[in-house]
């Protein structure tokens, strides 16, 4: 048994609506149990200006010297309104952004920032340092070993065992983070097994901590009709949704082919988000590749594209308007979109990738695919279309074990007791 955990610093160097939203929900779940939570993120964080209820402090200070941001560190409120901004962060920490600076100067500055952050966390006497992403410039992976040298307890959320579009250096990068973390938290048993297959030395420190439902997206059930009108969707059509970062592993090519092959011709596919990771992206057009594929397949009249990032309200309107969320991933370690779909009670069509099947047994509105191939997706769409009507899909499905307050409670118990999953 270790000492009770009363204060936590969460380190989120990204601050987008993926990891940033996860961090927000985690922080709120922890705060509900009386834990003091400070979230350290960067000055460009998409989270810092959102009008959300906040029972933790958000400190957008990463990427710049803390000595220049004393006012934020001392006076940052718990409420998002009036949150002071650190601006765009300090681009001088990046060699590519400052060609006039020597690499030696930049490297020295990065080392200084690493020590400054670690020493500030040590001085603040947090019971736990909780990191959310392994690639953390300008601080580098040595940040984790420095925290350990200073006697701090560090846990790390393994959102991805390895990056989806991994490079030759990624194994060494994450191995350094995993080595110096006291505990590693994964979102599924599938991911735990994959982590231990690649890094068996992590067995004694790996804990299963499921992703939770979202509270930050408002329920707007009355907006279903309005959003469908905005998208010019015919009455009676079933809306299939692909949402978020459109990357190769999410299998959009097979989705488009499956829509063509499906016997259901009353479906409209909505693709919302931004493409990345493809070699043939259309420059200047966030969903240009998807548009081109749809055109080549003769599908443009049945595909609605919503390019770019959506705000909280627009995302909620979109999920209220959709009937079926498509997650036919070929690879995954966990999916925020899955939990967003479950939050809105939408019918989910998914593969087992990343342990998505572990979340669905008690969620009635789902169709589990045999695989990520076109034939399996086609069958899944046809089966889901028969089931996913507005009358038989509950939009408020009770899943208490995926509530963040419950997830935070059980995780704190395990971390305090030092008990890993068997």
Number of strands: 13
Category by helix and strand content = alpha/beta
The major sheet is characterized as:
7 strands, parallel
Q: Sum up the overall morphology in one term.
A: globular
Note the beta-strand portion. 15-25%
Q: Please tally the helical runs, counting DSSP H or I stretches of 4 or more residues.
A: 14
The gyration radius over C-alpha positions equals 22 Å
Question: Considering DSSP H and I runs of 4 or more, what fraction of the residues is helical?
Answer: 25-40%
End-to-end separation in angstroms reads 17 Å
Order of helices and strands: EHEEHHEHEHEHEHEHEHEHEHEHEHH
Contiguous uncertain segments of 5+ residues: 80-97, 390-394
Strand order of the largest sheet: 3-2-1-4-5-6-7
**Overall average pLDDT:** 90
What are the key terms here?
alpha/beta; seven-stranded parallel β-sheet; six-stranded parallel β-sheet; 34% helix
Describe this structure in words.
It is built from 14 helices and 13 strands. The chain is of the alpha/beta class and 422 residues long. A seven-stranded parallel sheet has the order 3-2-1-4-5-6-7, with helices on both faces. Helix 3 runs parallel beside helix 4 and helix 7 crosses helix 10.
Short description:
The protein is of the alpha/beta class and 422 residues long.
List the helices and strands and how they pair.
Blueprint: E1 7-11, H1 19-31, E2 36-42, E3 57-62, H2 70-75, H3 103-124, E4 128-131, H4 142-149, E5 154-157, H5 170-179, E6 183-186, H6 189-198, E7 206-208, H7 224-230, E8 238-246, H8 252-261, E9 267-275, H9 288-296, E10 303-307, H10 312-321, E11 324-327, H11 336-343, E12 347-350, H12 356-359, E13 366-368, H13 374-387, H14 404-417
Parallel strand pairs: 1-2, 1-4, 2-3, 4-5, 5-6, 6-7, 8-9, 8-11, 9-10, 11-12, 12-13
